[in-house]
Amino acid sequence: MGNQRSTLASIAGTFDIKPDTPIVVTDPRYVLPKPVSLSIPTGRSRIFISDASTKGQYFSCKSRFAHNSCFRKLCDATNTCILSSHPQDVYGKTYKFFAGEDANAPYVAEAKIDELVFSHILIKCYIQTPARNYMIVLQGNWRTKDASIYFIPPKLQEFDLNEEIMSLAIPIARTRMGKGKDRYVVDIAPGVDIAVITALCITLDGRILATSGQNQYVVA
């Protein structure tokens, strides 16, 4: 990861990689043929996710805290729910993502927070699609937005994050600070579902707020 850190401030246009097969979790319209930079606010009950360059809106997100857990809805420009995330335990270590708002339907992704030390956080997110299953891994300092999200090939069963992740995984998203402390930019490679990456980022933001005693910023 050491070499990767120097590229975190670069624009999304520097991405020259993409998965061999597009990662479609929600809808093919959210798998773009070119890199995109999304501007994501933090610390509010309702946020709007937009293109960092054109300012055009992609998504909105509503959050609601109840009993130390947080339910979030990621909606499109027409306010239709695309994904909803639901914590699976009181510790906020596991979240499941559902298409739409029905938490009783089969989930499309599951994120497991293996480490809650945010100076070195490791997230494993298992993506289910009709064709195949994927795993994406986030590594880095999410609190300061110095992190990368990696795509792990389905055929790879085990890997060593400390030694071989750069040769075994493809970085599909990078975070960098934007203007203002309550907003950051996520650079996403082509061929990757930007909705599920956005939902994962917002889930991490909410988890940090919850563990920092700042739940009041995400109460709807």
CATH homologous superfamily (4th level) name? LURP1-related
Structural class: mainly beta
Q: What is the CATH C level class, in words?
A: Mainly Beta
Under CATH, the topology is which? Answer: Porin
Strand fraction? 35-45%
Q: Which strands sit side by side, in order, in the main sheet?
A: 1-2-3-4-5-6-7-8-9-10-11-12
Characterize the main sheet.
12 strands, antiparallel, barrel
CATH architecture name = Beta Barrel
Domains, number: 1
Number of strands: 12
The rounded distance between the terminal residues' Cα atoms is: 37 Å
How big is the Rg?
16 Å
Overall form: globular
The helix count comes to 3
Quote the average pLDDT.
69
As a percent range, the share of helical residues equals 10-25%
Which parts are unreliable, with pLDDT below 50 for 5 consecutive residues or more? 1-14, 116-121, 159-168, 214-220
Summarize the helix and strand pattern as letters: HEEEEEEEEEEHEEH
Fold and architecture overview:
12% of the residues lie in helices and 40% in strands. It starts with a helix and ends in a 9-residue tail after the last helix. The protein contains 3 helices and 12 strands; from the N terminus they run αββββββββββαββα. It is mainly β. A 12-stranded antiparallel barrel has the order 1-2-3-4-5-6-7-8-9-10-11-12.
